[in-house]
Amino acid sequence: MSQITELKSHPLVSHNLAILRNKDTDSQHFREAAHSLSRFVLISATESLRTVEQVIETPLKRTQEQILADDIWFVPVLRAGLAMVDVALELIPSAHVGFIGLYRDEDSLLPQHYYKNLPDFSKQTSTCFIVDPMLATGGSCIAAIDLLKEQHATDIKLLTLISAPEGIKEVFAKHPDVSIFTASIDEHLNESGYIVPGLGDAGDRYFGT
């Protein structure tokens, strides 16, 4: 069933969104705000991870705690998705990282695939988090989900900072089993396929290019 979680109502999410959107924010402060937002999105998206009970010996006694049951994979869509990976690995240092290289043709707005480094997920029980700061037309995210499913991934979640309603609709139309977690659902796409109000090009602003 299609499910989307928007975190904009949280005051700290709203505060960091304001920093990201401001055209005068420099790369350093843009990165800091992007990391803060990524952390909120990641924590929300990982709340339902499956756990198993493990017996732990503390210095005082034996106790039982819950640990992650499955392998966790973070899959950034290059290049902007790299902005969310460091935060992801801070939260789950044992996670694996796969890579998907896609870019959007500025004329057709269609995704172009140029790189993939993913395992065969049929050989493991895994949760896959696609991380990409912007969900605009949905083309790149759909292509990334297609590639993961070709590798037999079944538990896939899409994590973004800014999403357009048009892109959300397209993702759910093609992949209704994928949940989306985002800091903000923005107003619409303009005639050039950019999110409004958006924040410009996330990759350019994050990497200072």
Number of H/I helices: 6
**Name of the top-level CATH class:** Alpha Beta
Rounded to the nearest angstrom, the distance between the terminal CA atoms is 39 Å
Instruction: Give unreliable regions as ranges.
Output: none
Looking at the structure, what is the overall shape? globular
The name of the CATH topology is: Rossmann fold
Instruction: Indicate the CATH architecture.
Output: 3-Layer(aba) Sandwich
Largest sheet: 9 strands, mixed
**SSE sequence, one letter per element:** EHHEEEHEEEEEHEHEEEH
Strand content: 25-35%
Output mean pLDDT.
91
Number of strands: 13
The tally of structural domains comes to: 1
Helix fraction by DSSP (H/I, runs of at least 4): 25-40%
Radius of gyration: 18 Å
What structural class do the secondary elements suggest? alpha/beta
Summarize this structure as a short list of keywords or feature phrases.
209 residues, alpha/beta, 9-stranded mixed beta sheet, two-stranded antiparallel sheet
Describe the protein in words.
By secondary structure, the chain is an alpha/beta fold. The chain has one domain: Rossmann fold. Helices cover 31% and strands 33% of the residues. It is built from six helices and 13 strands. Strands 1, 4, 5, 6, 7, 8, 9, 10 and 11 form a nine-stranded mixed beta sheet that branches. Strand 6 and strand 7 form a beta hairpin. Helix 2 packs across helix 3. The longest helix has 19 residues. The model has no long low-confidence stretch (mean pLDDT 91).
Concise description?
By secondary structure, the chain is of the alpha/beta class. It is built from six helices and 13 strands.
